[in-house]
Amino acid sequence: MARVCMVVFNGYVSDSRVRREAEALVERGDSVDCICLSPKNIPHLAGVRLFSFGRAKYYGTNRILLVIRYVQFFLYAFTKLSIEHLRNPYDIVQAHTMPDFLIFTAIVPKLFGAKLVLDMHDLMPELYVAKYGSSRSKWLVAFIKWMERRSVAFADRAIAVHKPHLDVIVEHGNPRAKFSLLLNVADNRIFSRRSRPKHRDKEFRLLYHGTLPKRAGLDVALRAVARARNEVPNIRFEILGRGECANVLRTLVKDLNLTDCVEWSAGVPVEKLPAIIDRADIGVVPYSANAFTRYVLPTKLMEYVATGLPTIVSRLPSVEAYFDPEMVAYFEPGNDAELAAQIVRLYRNPELAERYASNAERFTETYNWPRQKQVYFQLVDSLVPSQRFRG
Asked: In terms of CATH, what superfamily is 204-366?
């Protein structure tokens, strides 16, 4: 039995990737702790022991405040991880980005022989450029790339979330051989194919769930809904999540006179998402195009596909690498008129919407958690030679 500690600057309950990996290890008999963010003290969840920093994630755009939060959490995680390792040594410490430098919270365990895994959810250099621009801070972007390389070098193994993501990490100067590919697919225990009505007379529901940064493109989606409602009078758009643009989006809803057809709610535990997806007719993933999103393969897209929800998605390179035009309805990023046209098209043609959902099953047949889980187990077991692989 391997003893593993995960470190993540996020709430454990809401981070589906961290939970999927941690709980898979617990199910096969490993021991897992997780040092995480959380405003509530939840000591255990699904067999995982949680050490909470006691604060919610920061969603603002103030760079100084974000760095302060990073440093505060780093110091907490470094101290907690060191103490727990000295009490009962870990075999593996797995740091989940962002930030990349969380891997250095495991200095003490590494000195005592623990193996380190850096699970790179996102690209920090590209995200910085997308949020703040690079013209005035090229030195800072270079520093972030340098820190990424140092973090990967400090780890024994690293994980990328899909091939285009790995390709750009390698372009940053990191060794490809150090990485495993582990797609951020939907958890089949929670998200499974479901039958849904062909069409609904009372309302036509669109759904977006997740964080609400500017790059999510929800301003484009709201303008598309304003266009489409003339031809889809019973349209409803449910936005589930929180983030830096929440107030801006609420103002836009009022400006577009959409208060009667847009519904808001905060994030929920991942187990509650299927019931919310069940009442939707179409999933919408309207990401804008920038240096960061071109390498994003949205988890929400894979959750919609896994449950059989037809999805309209921005035409972005990483999405196109895995989904052909017969599996999802594409529109050009930022084009609210084209998005509105796709909404109307699927509203008028429920059979076409169902065909998209059916074709998208090809993705889940190839990329699913049971298969990806074996990749993850092989990685973990390769770092603990005494552990016999248990499939």
From this structure: Glycogen Phosphorylase B; (3.40.50.2000)
